[in-house]
Amino acid sequence: MFTTEFLDLPHLARAGGSVQLPGSKSISNRVLLLAALSAGTTTIHDLLDSDDTRVMLDALHALGCTVTPRQVTPGQPVQITGIDGALPNNARAQLFLGNAGTAMRPLTAALAILGGSFEMTGVPRMYERPIGDLVDALRQLGCQIDYLRDEGFPPLRIGQPDFRQLGSTGAAPIQVRGDVSSQFLTSLLMALPLLASTSPQAIAIDVVGELISKPYIHITLELLARFGIRVENHGWQRFVIPAGSRYQSPGSIHVEADASSASYFIALGAIAASAEGQNGIKIEGVGLDSIQGDIRFVEAARAMGAEITGGPNWLHVARGRWPLRAIDLDCNHIPDAAMTLAAMALYADGTTTLRNIASWRVKETDRIAAMAAEARKLGALVEEGAGFIRITPPAAPEDWRAASIHTYDDHRIAMCFSLAAFNPAGLPVRIQDPKCVAKTFPDYFEALFALVQPGAPAPVICIDGPTASGKGTVATLVAQRLGFALLDSGALYRIAGLAASRAGIALQADQADRIAALIATLHIVFAPDQRVLLNGEDISLAIRTEEAGMNASRVSAFPAVRQALLQWQRDFRRLPGLVADGRDMGTVIFPDAPLKVFLSASAECRAQRRFKQLIDKGLSANMHDLLADLQARDARDTQRSASPLQPAEDALHWDNNAERTVEQAVQQVLSWWQQRQPFAAEESAV
Ligand SMILES: Nc1ncnc2c1ncn2[C@@H]1O[C@H](COP(=O)(O)OP(=O)(O)OP(=O)(O)O)[C@@H](O)[C@H]1O
Ligand SMILES: Nc1ccn([C@@H]2O[C@H](COP(=O)(O)O)[C@@H](O)[C@H]2O)c(=O)n1
């Protein structure tokens, strides 16, 4: 996951390949709660690992359920042993539920019926998301719920219910509004079987007002049935839970991939020209048989021109009509995925109107306002109303603008606007706070980058300079702040030197071809945890000795060795960008790099730094020898005929002498980088 302050997406041109989607958030959190309320142990496969499922898992653990393992591990199921419809007497807990509506609302209903002493808290935005209609419905039954701040909103305190008023004949139908959030009805449907289990009468729920988001209720009913609760659905207006209903674990259950997440890749297939040798996008884990309402996004995308085929758990999407066709659609049936239509509308042949989307206003943020504000930044013409949005794309390529997209801590805003990187103007798009996608799809950007091809080669920042000038340190930090990949080219020469000496090859010019041939056979891995593996062996420390540095310096003077490592280095170039440190990054390896930096510092300063670095690592060092070695390496690096160490003509120089700190150097490089970006100055502050 990208945890940077922002993520710059270069202009994207093409896409192709296949993507396996994470589990559905809606199904994951429902299944977790149902498993927790049931008798027996449920093994849950393909559970989504996200912010919202994590808060749910933590809450269930706090309530006394056995959760094994405590965190979701890819490919490993999670087992929940449920409470069999009852909590111990005097159960109490404080539950932090983040911004997860799918945790706050159903847990409130279930705990209000089970009884105990609970505080339901979350992030500030959660305290702006209404829950009053659900609380009113639960109070009709005798549940004890108090608002801890504002009337109608979390945080809440839940106490012991008093069901005496229900009497032996049961309650009158419970009334709940259906026109604000379908999560209220879902919450009651999942909580009321706890009451029905001991009730002599069936329990009925009447929906007041038009029921929005019926597809989500459909998911709830399907899953309730899997856990032994068969709810009667009377025309989506009355739901009846039979007396004696009792939660029973199905034993094992698979979570479908998220149909809302699929929408971004369906849109990608519809928008992007196919990558060479590829034919569109294959989406795995969810298909045309999905129980999720957002699968009907497929119909809307087809209406806009996408060519979509599919099976029970897969979809294939290719660009069809281009530009896309503008549509006018009632989106009540696909409230979440409809946001992706707004992104597709940027590529349509006219004005697209999305109606019946008032529920967007009470989601993670006011999504109508947010989508309108951010689409306008790109140059689109946007009109918004209480329950609709109308989008006209920029009239011509030159009307598009490079925008820094504010994401409002809303995963869907971030994912939708990533699609703006396919704009016809060749502009990059900045996504602020990219980690907000953690709510449903932590690795969204990684999945996107695996499928797309940029319009021009991915950007590279070259940082060259003599040994111990601070290149590696600065390059690592710049790469971290931008979310870029890192190439430590010196490590490749160090590996070459180490491998040659281990093979007993003399490090001299007449052996250069043998060393080059050896390089071609090496299996080198730069692991994400910073370890360097050579043919499976961890050589991270072995290549960092001064001797390894000297050997690297020797072999690096041979043109055949440099040639053998050339493509290796260029293959590091990838989305969203690369920071490359070395001696000839700007002059030879990436001559087209948009930013080249040359660091310098006196030999004495560099020797001092290297001395400290070695001592800090617990290695022995001698200042006199270090200075001599360093000067010898400088001489060899600058005087060799093949790619000598020298600044590129267009390099920017940074004197990295003793009075300069690491952070100053990093800030300088980032500031040079910002100056090269097309985003407005006030939007690009790092
Ligand atoms: N202003 C500075 N900029 C960068 N590094 C600094 C600075 N001040 C002190 N250092 C320290 O200098 C040491 C040497 O830096 P580093 O290893 O990044 O150099 P390098 O140029 O990559 O060396 P080599 O080419 O040998 O790999 C590190 O311990 C680093 O923390
Ligand atoms: N692009 C490069 C990088 C390194 N070298 C040579 O390798 C030696 C080790 O590099 P470090 O950056 O890890 O110190 C170095 O002394 C150079 O001789 C190179 O030639 N080109």
From TrEMBL:
Chain positions recorded as phosphoenolpyruvate binding sites: K25, G101, R129, Q183, R367, R412, K439
Binding site for ATP: G465, P466, T467, A468, S469, G470, K471, G472, T473
Active site, per annotation: D336 (proton acceptor)
Pathway where this protein functions: Metabolic intermediate biosynthesis; chorismate biosynthesis; chorismate from D-erythrose 4-phosphate and phosphoenolpyruvate: step 6/7
Gene3D superfamilies reported in the protein's UniProt record: Enolpyruvate transferase domain (3.65.10.10), P-loop containing nucleotide triphosphate hydrolases (3.40.50.300)
Amino acids binding 3-phosphoshikimate: K25, S26, R30, S181, S182, Q183, S213, D336, K363
CDD domains referenced in this protein's UniProt entry, alphabetically: CMPK, EPSP_synthase, NK
Subcellular location per the Swiss-Prot or TrEMBL entry: Cytoplasm
Domain Enolpyruvate transferase: 16-448
InterPro entries per the UniProt record, alphabetical: Cytidylate_kin, Cytidylate_kinase_dom, Enolpyruvate_Tfrase_dom, Enolpyruvate_Tfrase_sf, EPSP_synthase, EPSP_synthase_CS, P-loop_NTPase, RNA3'P_cycl/enolpyr_Trfase_a/b
The entry's keywords: Amino-acid biosynthesis, Aromatic amino acid biosynthesis, ATP-binding, Cytoplasm, Kinase, Nucleotide-binding, Transferase
Domain of life, per lineage: Bacteria
All copies of domain Cytidylate kinase, residue ranges: 461-672
Tagged with keyword Transcription: no
Any Pfam family hit: Cytidylate_kin
EC number: 2.5.1.19, 2.7.4.25
GO molecular function: 3-phosphoshikimate 1-carboxyvinyltransferase activity; kinase activity
Reactions accelerated catalytically: CMP + ATP = CDP + ADP; 3-phosphoshikimate + phosphoenolpyruvate = 5-O-(1-carboxyvinyl)-3-phosphoshikimate + phosphate; dCMP + ATP = dCDP + ADP
Subunit structure: Monomer.
HAMAP family with a match to the protein in the record: Cytidyl_kinase_type1 (MF_00238), EPSP_synth (MF_00210)
NCBIfam families: aroA, cmk, PRK11860.1
Functional summary from the UniProt entry: Catalyzes the transfer of the enolpyruvyl moiety of phosphoenolpyruvate (PEP) to the 5-hydroxyl of shikimate-3-phosphate (S3P) to produce enolpyruvyl shikimate-3-phosphate and inorganic phosphate.
Family membership noted in the UniProt record: Belongs to the EPSP synthase family. Belongs to the cytidylate kinase family. Type 1 subfamily.
Name of the protein: Multifunctional fusion protein
Species for this entry: Comamonas nitrativorans
Lineage: Bacteria, Pseudomonadati, Pseudomonadota, Betaproteobacteria, Burkholderiales
